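Q: For a teaching session next week I want to show students how multiple molecules come together into a single three-dimensional assembly. I've collected the sequence lines for a complex. Could you give me the predicted structure tokens for the whole thing so I can convert them for display?
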Amino acid sequence: MSANQDRLAQQMAFIIEADKLKNIFRQSYISDESRRENDAEHSWHLALMAITLYEHANDPDLDLLKILRMVIIHDIVEIDAGDTYIYDEEHKQDQALREQQAADRLFGMLPEDQAKSFRADWDEFEAGESPEARFSKAIDRLHPMLLNYLAGGKTWNKHGVVATQVHAINQKIGRGSDTLWAYAQDLIQKSISEGILPAK
Amino acid sequence: MSANQDRLAQQMAFIIEADKLKNIFRQSYISDESRRENDAEHSWHLALMAITLYEHANDPDLDLLKILRMVIIHDIVEIDAGDTYIYDEEHKQDQALREQQAADRLFGMLPEDQAKSFRADWDEFEAGESPEARFSKAIDRLHPMLLNYLAGGKTWNKHGVVATQVHAINQKIGRGSDTLWAYAQDLIQKSISEGILPAK
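A: Of course. Below is the structure for the complete assembly, covering every listed component.
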């Protein structure tokens, strides 16, 4: 096998392994409430949000390609580590360790140079400090809020989540986009008014 | 409502409408054969293939951001037009018209400047002439072949598709990447050897 064929074989093995993301189901329902959303669909929807909404980022000089690279791979670790519900304090304890180990294994399937660059993008997303990571995390938080609102608050109600929690967890949206945080606060207010999210 | 809020409202309406892509099911099964794949998952998997494999494109100077913009939106028209199976000659007759009308409605939900740029990306993908469109179409063809191979030829067998058809339909992969077309031809040979795809 040539060096190039060997490289392609590693890349295809990673792409095939990544197919499992389609079976990692999140707490959010898709907007017609028929079933829960999986991580692959969520990642696509974030990528669409990124290309549609990045003009609203606080930083006007964002690298959109960097954002797309991050949102496309940001949940791949959940193939091994599973999805952790953002309001689940118990499982959030060891989430970081589980996800680091998953990143080692999954990105480690790629040729060494790509393993490093994919891992660097994932680490940057997780750190949430660069303008691109702050914006990516902003849409990653806004997306389930939006689906939840569209699905009549189904997941919030199932888990007994109230508006003060939704506000506290999601205010970091403002670190990436003041405009989207204002939109999110409107969604919280509408959810309270429509009786699908208890005020507290 | 301010001009900026009005703009955001149009963008969010488009993003919400796009959620319907999660209910457009393709002929391909996901690799564990448990169910058919939907267009949102497929689009995410293509984006992952793009960032992993674009080094194998025939043209070394590809614009990866352009490729990602195209693959993220390439199937959105199927919300209105439905999925047309690539071996279904009857429904391919009016596919172009159905998809043009869908593009008018769906991209037309966006603010005018974005409606134009999303439509231009989609038109470029459909035309399949630019280096970025040729590569995007190459992975769009390779992806279902790969899933079909992993799922034991399930969809090929269901529709009575034989290797000569798979070869004829997919040889355009070589317009985007000779390396990926060589890989695809190996997949066809392996599928014949393993008895999951009749030679003719």
